[in-house]
């Protein structure tokens, strides 16, 4: 969601901040702003609604905001509509639109998260003579710090600590104080924030890509901690105001990994990176030809003693969980529940310390997933996180972490992180089966072998992209699309449908194929595209029948077929291949337990090309955010 950047050092701050914000655009936003403290002691700020280039233009690429320290923000509206008044930065005094860009406020801040008791705090501040110009909770937080600063005649860290004790909710709050040139202050609770240090300069951001071009040495600031940031150095404080020592971490991502590298869109780049991402992820957990999760503390004692598995996640990560359920149940014979993390937190927790909660998250920051993890931890339930972003909140709080090594994922619609999640979950299913004596060594090695071949097969799927591109041109005019499948193919349908709708804005739904007749089939009209996933031989004939039922009612069919998943039906399908309304895509053969990982790739491509042919913003679809850091 919102993006935060901060800088203090030797460069022109506005340029660094604008670059950082551009690297965070993928998080989703609807307005942006900057504040820079000049050498003349003046703080200049500028805000703009819409895309970042409006802010870039208004500030003449930052030149109109001279100074070597500053803060910036991209806002995804929560409290108040996305206009300039509500855009960040916010100030402790008055803000007037177009007032020559100067602010005479003592405290200026940007914020991610939600202050839950903002109404009560706003009333308190009103009673003390403060007035408000915006609808935001951020203005409340900034004014509260100003209030404590003046009431108790204390320094910024003490004022921030008083603010932290008083507010409820989540925040990554970054502040500048008029009388502290060159200094930036930060505080955090439940919203991501990192601080990167280089020679003579310090960077602050809500996410790694914003600072990757400058430094890979970062500090992760924890809940209820504050930081005082100076050029090339940073000091951390606990809630008592005592200085504490934190250790820096080196980010493993290469700066180039967060660039387009010649691709038109990040999404296509990330689709094409899947074979390498899958290979890197699997290789990391292979030792002497066998799977080895001991580096995450997942030894056979722990895996062997589990009674059931519960998976909690959101969005595509939840789809990875749904897909994994089939593999874990089939191979390890363990009961698996898959919960939407946003619902899980409001249900009675019927898990015991003999169960394992697995949370899956690309960003490691999704608020609902993080909360599901915390609930389980409070009840003493062992937790495992499948996470892509090193050092993220979920990665730091889970008992055990398996990293997907997909590298930075910038496009809002996930692709490579999703397939790496699937791969790791398949690998976990195989390992669970083996340590629980559900499969013999020979079978175990066969599955490991199958997993090792998935990256090359994924590359084959991607190389057939021109065919998908032609099919997408036909989909671009559709109003509704249905994806159907049974068993593991249903999970692929869910992800394929989400990929299409989130970036092409075409309404689509995924249905378990057997459910169509219970209502949905009434929506099928002449030409409605119905996409069937057929990778599971035990159920593919049935799904095919459901597809033909749709065809009989006018539907235009597309099948994604794996290997020999269709026998007799395959012949029928082949005959139909030339008919104008009938199309199919074949993906390489793989063990049926893992075929979903391949079947999803043409569906990612289908979503991508459909969005491109509709002329849409593929990487940053409207209203969406890459990281959903509020409930
Ligand atoms: C957002 C993203 C999705 C993602 C979901 C969960 O909605 O747009 O692509 O699947 O959040 O995110 P996570 O970071 O927890 O995987």
Explain this structure to me?
This protein has 631 residues and is α/β, with parallel strands linked by helices. It has three domains: 3-255, 4-Layer Sandwich (Glutamine Phosphoribosylpyrophosphate, subunit 1, domain 1), CATH 3.60.20.10; 266-463, Glucose-6-phosphate isomerase like protein, domain 1 (Rossmann fold); 465-613, 3-Layer(aba) Sandwich (Rossmann fold). It is 37% helix and 23% strand. The chain contains 19 helices and 28 strands. Strand 26, helix 17 (537-552) and strand 27 form a beta-alpha-beta unit. The longest helix has 23 residues, at 441-463. The termini are close together. 57% of the residues are buried. The structure holds 6-O-phosphono-alpha-D-glucopyranose (G6P). 6-O-phosphono-alpha-D-glucopyranose (G6P) is lined by residues 314-317, 361-363, 366, 369, 412-414, 624, 626-628.
Outline the secondary-structure elements.
Layout: E1 3-8, H1 13-23, E2 31-37, E3 43-49, H2 52-58, E4 69-75, E5 90-91, E6 102-103, E7 107-115, H3 118-127, H4 137-151, H5 156-166, E8 169-177, E9 184-189, E10 194-198, E11 201-205, E12 217-220, E13 225-230, E14 233-237, E15 243-244, E16 249-250, H6 266-272, H7 274-284, E17 286-287, E18 290-291, H8 300-304, E19 309-313, H9 315-332, E20 336-340, H10 341-344, E21 356-361, H11 367-378, E22 383-387, H12 393-397, E23 400-403, H13 416-435, H14 441-463, H15 465-475, E24 480-485, H16 488-504, E25 507-512, E26 529-534, H17 537-552, E27 556-562, H18 568-576, E28 582-587, H19 595-613
Parallel strand pairs: 19-20, 19-21, 21-22, 22-23, 24-25, 24-26, 26-27, 27-28
Antiparallel strand pairs: 1-4, 1-11, 2-3, 2-4, 3-6, 5-7, 7-8, 8-9, 9-13, 10-11, 10-12, 12-16, 13-14, 14-15, 17-18
């Amino acid at each position: 969601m919102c993006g935060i950047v901060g800088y203090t050092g030797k460069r022109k701050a506005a340029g660094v901040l604008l670059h950082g914000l551009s690297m965070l655009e993928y998080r989703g936003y609807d307005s942006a702003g900057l504040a820079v403290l000049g050498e003349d002691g003046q703080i200049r700020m500028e805000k703009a609604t819409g895309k970042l280039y409006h802010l870039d233009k208004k500030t003449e690429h930052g030149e109109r905001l001279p100074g070597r320290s500053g803060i910036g923000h991209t806002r995804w509206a929560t409290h108040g509509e996305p206009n300039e008044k509500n855009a960040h930065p916010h100030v402790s005094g008055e803000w007037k639109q177009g007032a020559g860009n100067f602010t005479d406020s003592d405290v200026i801040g940007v914020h991610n998260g939600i202050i839950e008791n903002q109404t009560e705090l706003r009333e308190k501040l009103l009673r003390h003579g403060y007035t408000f110009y915006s609808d935001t909770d951020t203005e409340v937080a900034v004014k509260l710090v100003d209030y404590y600063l003046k009431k108790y005649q204390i320094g910024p860290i003490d004022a921030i600590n008083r603010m932290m004790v008083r507010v409820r909710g989540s925040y990554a709050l970054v502040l500048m104080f008029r009388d502290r040139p060159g200094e930036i202050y930060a505080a955090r609770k439940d919203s991501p924030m990192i601080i990167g240090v280089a020679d003579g300069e310090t960077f602050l951001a809500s996410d790694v890509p914003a600072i990757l071009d400058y430094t890979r040495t970062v500090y992760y600031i924890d809940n209820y901690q504050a930081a005082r940031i100076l050029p090339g150095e940073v000091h951390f404080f606990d809630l008592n105001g005592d200085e504490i020592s934190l250790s820096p971490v080196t980010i493993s991502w290469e700066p180039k990994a967060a660039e387009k590298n010649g691709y038109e869109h990040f999404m296509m780049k990330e689709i094409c990176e899947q074979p390498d991402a899958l290979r890197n992820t699997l290789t990391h957990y292979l030792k002497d030809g066998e799977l080895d999760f001991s580096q995450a503390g997942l030894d056979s004692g722990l895996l062997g003693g589990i009674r059931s598995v519960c998976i909690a996640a959101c969005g595509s990560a939840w789809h990875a969980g749904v897909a994994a359920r089939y593999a874990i149940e089939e191979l390890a014979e363990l009961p698996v529940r898959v919960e939407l993390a946003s619902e899980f937190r409001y249900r009675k927790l019927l898990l015991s310390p003999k169960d394992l909660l697995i949370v899956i998250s690309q960003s490691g920051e999704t608020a609902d997933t993080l909360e599901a993890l915390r609930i389980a931890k409070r009840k003493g339930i062992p937790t495992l996180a499948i996470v892509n972003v090193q050092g993220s909140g979920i990665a730091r709080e889970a008992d055990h972490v398996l990293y997907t090594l997909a590298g930075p994922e910038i496009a809002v619609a996930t692709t490579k992180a999703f397939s790496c999640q699937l791969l790791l979950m398949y690998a976990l299913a195989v390992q669970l089966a083996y340590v629980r004596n559900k499969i013999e060594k020979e079978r175990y090695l066969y599955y490991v072998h199958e997993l090792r071949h998935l990256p090359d097969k994924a590359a084959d799927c991607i190389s057939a992209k021109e065919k998908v591109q032609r099919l997408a041109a036909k989909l671009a005019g559709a109003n509704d699309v249905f994806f159907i499948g049974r068993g593991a193919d249903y999970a692929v349908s869910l992800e394929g449908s989400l990929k299409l709708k989130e970036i092409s804005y075409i309404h689509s739904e995924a249905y378990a194929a057997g459910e169509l007749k219970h209502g949905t089939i009434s929506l099928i009209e002449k030409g409605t595209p119905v996409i069937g996933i057929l990778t599971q031989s035990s159920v593919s004939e049935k799904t095919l029948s459901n597809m033909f039922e749709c065809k009989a009612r006018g539907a235009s069919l597309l099948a994604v077929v794996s290997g020999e998943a269709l026998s007799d039906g395959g012949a029928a399908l082949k005959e139909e291949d030339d008919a104008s309304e009938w199309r199919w895509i074949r993906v390489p053969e793989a063990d049926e337990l893992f075929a979903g990982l391949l079947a999803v790739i043409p569906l990612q491509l289908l979503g991508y090309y459909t969005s491109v042919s509709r002329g849409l913003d593929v990487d940053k679809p409207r209203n969406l955010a890459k990281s959903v850091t509020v409930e």
